[in-house]
User: Which sequence fits this backbone?
């Protein structure tokens, strides 16, 4: 064998080796990659809550994303999002993109009638996510791992807001939002049931306009003493009707109406109040960065003198500095708001909601549990009181961050803090306003000035070299 | 290596070709950037009225960076075609190989010189984003990652172009081979529709790896892809140069 042949063979082998090493390096880098999402709002990463949820899955889950093969953009987005879940827990999460037209039987089996849905399958259990979006997917995963739905009862019979109907004052959207998060809603009439049902996770007192009967009050108190969970939203006119409850739990809501000059941007009288500051320590409002809107709200604050032993109470939300309160009587029965500085009770940073935990005590002997009803046996009671019911009404529920705040309250009350509300990732986006002059400047600089300057420099250099 | 680097850089800028290339690239990029900014202004106003504001960092910057990368595919072969083909044609390659320099040093010098020209070309395109940044908030670290992606893409493309140039004494053939090869690298993800290759090796297409970086996602997989691709073709070029010694 000549030296040339030996060299040719060695070159050939080294080229093959190099190609092999190239592919092996790619394979290793694919299996051991690290990723950093450097976008300001972590647009391409899962939130910490989603990561926790997928990593803590007890059983493997397969996601079937139903998307048409022709919809490249949606498939790519789904691949990226579902890929992030898989990357976080490769042993527990897998996914497939399914074209419902090519696999009609699979689509029919999971009752998928239109593309864009994701079915999560774990063993024999399934959950549906109506969109290929992080919030929906993570909450569907949570529902899958926590199949026992939590039940939220809305107390009725005292002029509370209806939970159905399109009336702007009704709470149908709130109720719908609860269902989307896997809660089951129901109406509770204590006169009929005589007790809080055993499956109640939370009872909502949505602005009762009439007093509860003493027996009903006692039933609720007993339930709370045994670790019940309550969300009470007040009405300006009738907030005092819940004094029997609030005073025992170290919360007070003075008969004042909160007005906010800042809220005049809504083009109405200043009856709206915007909550701008939130408690950074409480799980409900930790990292909560959205404004929330209230209408004809009452202040709700902690009453340190009446705080029960062992209780922990915290104001959740405060208005901005331009809000002020006047006696409720100044507004009630009036046709329009008249602001008189001498009637202002307090100014700026008015508390709008309070959350508290209370050590649960034994049920009083006077109210034994009737047969069939097992009282909750949790170690602590939880109460959230909000100085307004409108903030969860059909009209305001989806305005600003109202939905997020309400859902966070419910999730905290039911100890489902890991249920999440994922902020939209396009926050902070601003419209690009371009004047005619600016448009011309951009064009002249980029299309004319810079290329021309480079070209001229080149000609000058060439000219000088020749000269 | 420094000597080769200086010699190559001087050769680039003493010929009018490099200047024309840079100017035409900037003209096309400037044209696309200026009109995209104008279009985005309309889109963002409409989006704002629809209640969902459009983000320049999401809807404008990544497509622009990807387009800039795509345009490099047409310009870089013109930079690399002469690197060895011209030397081969004029007979200066053999002379160069007799210098007390290793193939690696020659390669590195030529490669770095070409990369410097591309780096300058890309640096000038920043002016468009600086103007955009005065009109709307930009996420500069994300833009930085996008430019890093373009530089890595250029390095891989240049290495491929150098290899093609080392194979022939015709600049035209070198340019055509480079165009074809780079185009294949660009569209590879579309070819592998079954995803079998992707499953094993990750995406082999340069476009897929650049897309990640233009969005502001720094993935070691993308960095390794471009660096490995550049290293592979630099190695292959070195082997071609070495083969001249025993071919005689």
Assistant:
């Amino acid at each position: 064998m000549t030296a040339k042949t030996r060299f040719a063979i060695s070159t050939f082998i080294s080229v093959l080796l190099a190609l092999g090493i190239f592919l092996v390096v790619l394979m290793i880098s694919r299996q051991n990659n690290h990723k950093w999402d450097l976008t300001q709002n972590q647009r391409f990463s899962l939130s910490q809550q989603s990561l926790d949820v997928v990593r803590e899955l007890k059983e493997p889950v397969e996601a079937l994303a139903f998307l048409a093969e022709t919809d490249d953009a949606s498939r790519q987005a789904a691949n990226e999002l579902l890929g992030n879940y898989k990357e976080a827990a490769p042993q527990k999460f897998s996914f497939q993109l399914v074209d419902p037209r090519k696999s009609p039987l699979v689509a029919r089996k999971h009752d998928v009638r239109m593309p864009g849905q994701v079915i999560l399958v774990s063993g024999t259990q399934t959950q549906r996510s109506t969109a290929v979006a992080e919030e929906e997917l993570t909450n569907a995963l949570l529902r899958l791992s926590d199949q026992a739905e939590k039940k939220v009862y809305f107390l009725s019979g005292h002029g509370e807001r209806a939970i159905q109907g399109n009336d702007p004052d009704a709470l149908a959207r709130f109720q719908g939002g609860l269902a989307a998060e896997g809660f089951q809603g129901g109406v509770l009439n204590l006169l009929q049931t005589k007790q809080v049902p055993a499956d109640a996770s939370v009872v909502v007192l949505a602005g009762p306009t009439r007093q509860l009967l003493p027996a009903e009050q006692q039933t609720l108190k007993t339930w709370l003493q045994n670790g019940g969970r309550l969300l009470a939203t007040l009405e300006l006119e009738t907030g005092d009707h819940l004094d029997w409850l609030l005073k025992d739990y170290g919360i007070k809501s003075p008969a004042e109406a909160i007005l906010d000059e800042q809220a005049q941007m809504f083009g109405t009288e200043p009856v709206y109040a915007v909550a701008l500051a939130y408690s950074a320590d409480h799980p409900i409002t930790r990292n909560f960065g959205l404004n929330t809107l209230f209408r004809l709200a009452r202040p709700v604050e902690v009453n340190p003198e009446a705080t029960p032993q062992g209780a922990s109470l915290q104001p959740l939300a405060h208005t901005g500095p331009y809000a002020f309160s006047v006696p409720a009587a100044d507004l009630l029965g009036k046709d329009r708001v008249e602001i008189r500085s001498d009637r202002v009770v307090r100014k700026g940073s008015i508390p709008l909601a309070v959350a508290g935990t209370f050590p649960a005590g034994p049920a009083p002997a006077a109210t034994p549990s009737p047969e069939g009803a097992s009282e909750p046996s949790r170690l602590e009671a939880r109460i959230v009181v909000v100085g307004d019911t409108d903030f969860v009404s059909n009209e305001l529920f989806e305005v600003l961050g109202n939905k997020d705040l309400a859902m966070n309250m419910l999730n905290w009350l039911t100890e489902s803090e890991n249920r999440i509300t994922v902020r939209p990732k396009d926050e902070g986006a601003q419209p690009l306003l371009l004047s005619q002059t600016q448009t011309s400047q951009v064009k002249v600089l980029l299309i004319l000035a810079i290329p021309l300057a480079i070209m001229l420099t080149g000609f000058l250099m060439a000219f000088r070299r020749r000269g | 290596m420094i000597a080769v680097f200086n010699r190559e850089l001087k050769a680039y800028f003493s010929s009018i070709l490099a200047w024309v290339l840079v100017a035409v690239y900037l003209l096309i990029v400037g044209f696309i950037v200026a009109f995209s900014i104008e279009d985005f202004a309309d889109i963002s106003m409409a989006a704002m009225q629809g209640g969902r504001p459009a983000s320049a960092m999401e809807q404008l910057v990544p497509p622009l960076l990807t387009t800039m990368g795509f345009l490099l595919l047409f310009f870089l072969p013109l930079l690399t075609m002469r690197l060895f083909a011209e030397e081969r044609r004029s007979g200066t390659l053999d002379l160069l190989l007799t210098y007390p320099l290793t193939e690696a040093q020659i390669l590195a010098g030529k490669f770095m010189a070409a990369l410097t020209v591309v780096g300058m070309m890309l640096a000038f395109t920043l002016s468009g984003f600086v103007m955009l940044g005065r009109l709307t908030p930009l996420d500069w670290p994300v833009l930085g990652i996008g430019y890093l992606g373009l530089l890595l893409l250029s390095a891989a493309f240049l290495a491929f172009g150098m290899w093609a140039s080392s194979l022939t004494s015709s600049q035209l053939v070198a340019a055509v081979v480079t165009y074809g090869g780079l185009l294949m690298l660009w569209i590879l993800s579309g070819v592998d529709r079954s995803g079998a290759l992707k499953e094993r090796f990750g995406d082999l297409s340069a476009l897929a790896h650049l897309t990640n970086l233009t969005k502001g996602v720094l993935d070691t997989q993308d960095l390794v892809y471009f660096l490995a691709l550049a290293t592979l073709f630099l190695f292959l070029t070195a082997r071609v140069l070495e083969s001249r010694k025993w071919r005689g």
